[in-house]
Specification:
Elements (H helix, E strand, L loop, with lengths): L3 E3 L2 E3 L5 H13 L6 E2 L8 E11 L11 E17 L6 E16 L3 E5 L1 E8 L5 E14 L10 E16 L2 E13 L10 E11 L1
Length: 205
């Protein structure tokens, strides 16, 4: 049985859907003969602003604290490969760069800031309503005093799904749900992770 390592800890295949999502994205990227590469073309890139709510779930993994956040994020979406696949799974690959601010409202009143690098696949069979899948991670710095978090500098990984609804040629409305994990990877003790669910709304421009 294959075992992967993340932050120096063993993770069984199938335990984290992010691992499977990454395999799906990589396998589709290998089919570049059916795609239009747009690595250096920024004409189809877009920005988005998202906001929403998140909550960690005590008892989910080693999570012991219920931490509630108001989440804000500025996102840059860079197209990598266009016109992939056909039929219902036709779509494009892009890279999402996010600058999130997590305003902690419970149990402390403080904030966390970070940077996310996410791989995304958007289904374009319907040009007005487009589902998408994404996954990735990055660093998180916490100003919050959350019991069990032994470090201010942490890492996060996350995955989720969303829906993009075309409002007009210049703007899309976004709705997404994501699983979000924060921990310090065992660099300091204690290291109680935060396993959270987040719901976000946004608009592209």
């Amino acid at each position: 049985m294959i075992i992967c390592r993340l932050f120096g800890k063993k993770i069984m295949p199938g335990k984290h859907a992010a691992f499977l999502l990454l395999l799906l994205l990589v396998s589709n990227l290998s089919r570049t003969d059916f795609a239009e590469a747009a690595v250096f073309d920024t004409s189809k890139d877009s920005w988005a602003v998202l906001g929403g709510y998140g909550q960690s779930i005590p008892g989910w993994g080693r999570t012991s604290q219920r931490v509630e956040t108001i989440d804000l994020a500025l996102r840059y979406n860079h197209l990598i490969f266009d016109n992939l696949g056909s039929g219902w799974y036709r779509g494009f690959h892009s890279i999402l760069l996010e600058l999130p601010i997590h305003v902690v409202v419970s149990p402390d009143v403080s904030s966390m800031i970070g940077m996310n690098f996410l791989a995304c696949y958007t289904f374009t069979a319907n040009q007005d309503i487009r589902p998408y899948l994404f996954g990735g991670g990055g660093p998180v710095y916490s100003f919050a005093d959350v019991p069990g978090m032994g470090s201010e500098l942490n890492g996060n990984y996350q995955f989720g799904m969303g829906l993009s609804y075309r409002i007009n040629p210049a703007h899309d409305f976004l709705f997404e749900m994501r699983y979000h994990h924060i921990s310090n990877g065992g660099s300091e003790e204690p290291n109680d992770p935060l396993n959270s669910v987040k719901a976000l709304f946004g608009i592209t421009f």
